[in-house]
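So, can you check these tokens?
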Amino acid sequence: MSLFDTGPALDNPVPAAPLADRMRPRTLEEFVGQEHILGPGKPLRVRLERDELGSMILWGPPGTGKTTLARLVAGMSRCDFVPFSAVLSGIKEIKEVMAQAERNRRTGRRTVLFIDEIHRFNKAQQDAFLPYVERGDVILIGATTENPSFEVISALLSRAQVYALRALTVPEIVTLLKRALSDAERGLGSRQMEAPEELLEQIAIYSNGDARMAYNVLESAVAASPGRELSRQAVEDAIQRRTLLYDKAGEEHYNLISALHKSVRSSDPDAALYWLARMLEAGEDRLYIARRLIRMAIEDIGLADPRALEQAVAAMQAVHFLGIPEGDQALAQAALYLALAQKSDAAYQALNAARAQAAEGLAEPVPMHLRNPVTRHMKEWGYGKGYEHAHQFEDAVPGMPCLPESLQGKQFYHPTDRGWEKRIRERLEEIRELRRLKQPRD
């Protein structure tokens, strides 16, 4: 087979091919997801409709349609499609492909060179494409799961448009699975298999946005189901774990996060770990869990342990950086820290009280001594008069009031005597006493 053998057409899949290959969309209308670049009026859609195709990098997680989209782009633009593997090819093969593409251009034929896993090419290999891309011998479409800013040389990156593909949502993957079950020509429709909605959702959740993985699980589960209804046991065997009842948009989603939050608030680390594990096993969005842990650190721990927020934010960054499954340990570590930390909602309640005062009370004017006299006239009008700069005092605590006159003496924050807040309470009492002593006496 030559380097220019483009393989089977999208509308004539090999019957023995995996379901994921057989179900590749044949038209842009069949393509599911990526509405942010392919919806009406969106960047890539507009370029395709105008036949203004240029080199591009498709960046996204596995199973989001990068290869399929490249094939569709080539087909819509009436270009030869040449798949090229960064794993199997070197500079010799690159030069052979480029020479053929140059000959095609001279006869008026355009060539789309699709490079899967372009990040695996080294700098010298990527440099070899540059002159051909610049001359227009090829339209380069690279696919990568890695950040192109770090993995693609700048010279090549500057000549290509980067399109970021997103992991497919649960409803999008369920749509694909239903299509495969009903398609008798390319899919599994000949089995006339009925599939409960909740099992399709479980497959979609397990696949974590990867359509190829979802198709593989469905194909295995259908083959193992004895009758004409998709078997729960077959699905469990296909994903090699028990499918937990869980709907990311339904009640159980909220029940589990509520259980996790209340276990942390109640300082029960074992329960917190259990509910966290339930959410992880069910395929919950890890960044959603991280956001909720940050909320717990703010709402239920606060200044009783200021490091709790640091731990939660660090866990979120670790999850984003490491992904699954390595990032799950960061979530577990954060959940344990939060459960074991001293608890206080004093800062949370303080903000609520201050907001209630701001919402319900009069919009008091800012005292003149706190206003900044940015012009001469403002200074003449009394802006800044009586302002006491804290660093002019030995203890850096001035005596001037900072609340409006009607609210002087009002206290919103009442720290507890738990954890760091005990020290904060002692410091706050010290500050209030220093300010009291510096107030002018009648």
